[in-house]
Structures are given as C-alpha cells and as structure tokens.
Amino acid sequence: MGLPRFVWQDAYSTGIPEVDMQHRMLFQEVNRLADVLDAGSAISLRDLNGSLAFLRYYAEWHFGREEQLFEERADNPKHPLLCANRRAHAFFIRLATKWYRRYLDLRRQNASSVEIRKFALDLYYELVDWIENHVLQVDRRAAALCKTCPLHGA
Ligand SMILES: [Fe+2]
Q: How many CA atoms are closer than 13 Å to the CA of 12, on its beta-carbon side?
C-alpha cells in the first residue's frame, strides 16, 4: 500500500479562489512527493529540486498573500485567530529554511540513496502534518471569519 494522497474537496475551500488555488498546489506537491517515494526506485536529489523550489515559493509568497486576503476580508483583522495564523506561518518559514539547509548538506555530503529517501519521506510527512493541522484546521477557521463578514459573505 502506498502513501496517502490528498484529494481536494469543496469542504476545504476558504472561499477565496486565490488561496484555494495555492492550497491545491500544496496538495499536488505532496502527492508528487508520494509518487516519487512510492515508485520504489532510487531517489536523486534532482528529483527533489521541485519540492524545495515549491517550499520556497510557498514560504515566501503564499503566506503573505493568504494573510493579506484574510485580513482584508475579516471584520476584525486583528482577531486572535488571524494572529495565530501569522505566527504559524512564521514558524513554517523557519522550518522551510531548515529543510533547505538539510537539502544543501545532503548535496555537499554526496548523500547515499538511503539518506535521500529518508529526507524525502521526512519532508513528505512534514507537509502532510502541515496540511492536516494547519491548512485544514487553522486556515479553515480563519477563512470562516471572512465568510461571516457582511461585505464578503457568500
Ligand atoms: Fe495559513
């Protein structure tokens, strides 16, 4: 049995198409990583370049946009949940930097295929954890604050 994949559902929507599109990209990236791991063949660092590039995009671009779009739409842009969302993003940005450093270390050390597979699997589970505990929890609750705003409600 292979690693779990994520299938987008309407229930995951934040109601903001741009945020949803970026969350779907995250799902695709996690699924692509699962495909690489499930293929069973040796994984090269080159196979993971896309994942690292995605992490950088996600940390540098997505979070800022999501924060802006939520805060523009919420009744109270300083709501504790939106502050918690920002803090979680700052945490993940530091995490992404650590992943990048680990990736560069593997490159420098001419890592074995066992080490590269372990790195890919750890990264997969990190992203799964982020989807399950942030995207599908914090983001959805934060988005609900926007949906109740009379100016932007569905
Ligand atoms: Fe978020």
A: 18
Going by pLDDT thresholds of 50, 70 and 90, the confidence category of residue 122 is very high
What is the distance in A from the centroid of ligand 1 to the CA of 91?
11
Q: Kindly give the distance from the C-alpha atom of residue 87 to the centroid of ligand 1, in angstroms, as a whole number.
A: 9
Surrounding ion ligand 1 within 5 Å at CB are 85, 139
Q: Using an 8 Å Cβ cutoff, are 85 and 140 in contact?
A: no
Distances (CA, A) of 33 to 21, 41, 47, 54, 65: 19, 13, 9, 11, 24
Interval between CA 150 and ligand 1 midpoint (Å): 22
Q: How far is the CA of 89 from the centre of ligand 1 (A)?
A: 6
Whether 127 contacts 90, CB under 8 Å? no
Residues 77/147/31/90 CA torsion (nearest 10 deg): 10
How close is the Cα of 57 to the center of ligand 1, in Å?
A: 14
Contact 63/92 with Cβ under 8 angstroms?
yes
pLDDT digits (tens, 9 = 90+) for 70-107: 999 998 999 999 999 999 999 999 999 999 999 999 99
Q: Write down the pLDDT at residue 150.
A: 54
